[in-house]
């Protein structure tokens, strides 16, 4: 098997400049699988920036992928704004209760201070520690849950769906408050030496219509991306599920790279927007990476490469979404080994 001859920072810089690279960039999106790398339970990450950093840096060193993403769950910002989050001993956290149970309480919601509220300070600590440890060789990103998705955690997804029909002005107020938290957190992430990585699960066509996306999500998403660009950072945007009907809107929002979920087709994305934006994806995180064999991973990885390697704006081999916690190490190695064996 060929060995890497460039660091991830060198590889991504050369790739972006159109210069020769030793292999295509590759990012199996390792989230809480990192806990398994250092032999701890997922629940131990709660409020422990030092442990999160140790796990993510150790995972990077074990597998050799191209971007570290500091991430434990989608709810860190909503929790800092008052949502209740449950932390099982050894499973990913989940939303236990939204921040408010009645829209009459909307006025008491306020943007979070990332240096003070919830567990945001510990996540920032994890980012700083990761940068100190390996920032000279690999990019470190911090996950940001985008305005519309975060708004759904403030009032609950079902209530937000009803509000879009009955009280759209309330949805805009929720998204504005969420955006202010996003802007503050994104700024703190950049101050920590990292790049914000945007995830917007509830903006998916699997959840809302393209029209609703354009009305309630896109304006706030664009303002967030404009801010990050203004701070000199590029933006990778991930929206889960089906997204073909909003790819052009995601590009219009300013994203530099679209992370394509396994529910979407890389070939279609390349044809639709590949001349305007880099693509990233999209090996199935559950059916292939978690449940498949290394050979299945190899085949799926090669399929993604075949579909998107010639994308005009470039392509990053990746899982379609964050890997499940119990993803076998052999399968993560298989993805990287397959990319290393493929001549760029």
From TrEMBL:
The record's keywords, sorted A to Z, are: Methyltransferase, Transferase
- The transmembrane segments are none
Picking any one GO biological process from the record gives: porphyrin-containing compound biosynthetic process
Q: Where is the Uroporphyrinogen decarboxylase (URO-D) domain?
A: 8-341
Sample GO molecular function, one term: uroporphyrinogen decarboxylase activity
Concerning InterPro entries, the annotation shows:
Methanogen_methyltrans, UROD/MetE-like_sf, Uroporphyrinogen_deCOase
One Pfam family, please name it.
URO-D
What is the protein's name according to its record? Methylcobamide:CoM methyltransferase-related protein
